[in-house]
Task: structure prediction
Amino acid sequence: MLLLILSAQDVNTIIAALPSAELEAPMASEFRRLSSGSHYASPQKTSITIRFCPTSPEDKCGLPTSTTLLDEESGHAEEIVNASAQTALRSAASSVLATHLLLSEPPSSLVAFGAGKQIEVHLDLHIRAFLSLKRCTIVNPSTNAHLENLLFVLRQSHPLISLKGLSLDNTTNLRSAIGHANWVSLGTHLNRVGSFKPGMVEVDCGLISRSETIVIDSIEACAIETRELIAAGLSAGDMTEIGQLVEEWDCQDGPGEVQMRKGDVMVFKSVGIGLRDVAIARCVVSKAENLGIGTTVVDFHV
Result:
């Protein structure tokens, strides 16, 4: 029996070859399944993902992650994937899906906070998904090597986009990335993926009140893990799972803006759902097999 191994370079090559629509589709499927209460059932494979959190503050290389896809009947490993970009990829694909669902007009400008892998993948995927984008600004606490490198990489990949970096004054004491609700203009759509526990804050709570309905990945998870939503005292009726919007979108004659109660800004909050990791890993493996990418080990289980 064969074992396919995909290195970090293999995965990066595959990501570059994957159209945005092929990444959004498995995310939409998992969100729909979650909101409908359907049981998750993979026809052939299950997976094990191991993510290591470095304990040294000097370690700036991200979270080493690997995913092993198993044959569900025999339990044999069939693919091992370097999944260090997996979280960023499934988060970005989910954000692009939310942007498609919630924005009434194609976006022309994009602002991102931070200069890590999440931001790199978010920007790359949004630029590929929305040809209307002309300008991107990356806001970082300081002008450092991470910011400069990210700008270089994106300019190489997207030479027609106006890209600039903006560093915040390090003496400014901001409790969140978006420090004041009045910084955000009318009609803005926000994708929030940076916080995943109650002690973390991404936006000024005033932004929550400006959005008539908060769109989230999981009501159950966000109700206990998202500080701004908890502080605002939101009930389940104030939040809409993105899976519900996917179902409505599917019922329309072609893509278009879904109908829902909206304030003067739109907010999508994702804390992360494990099933999306499985879906993205399967998507990457499928593309690798089509392109003939990866290293094959023969008779691994003999």
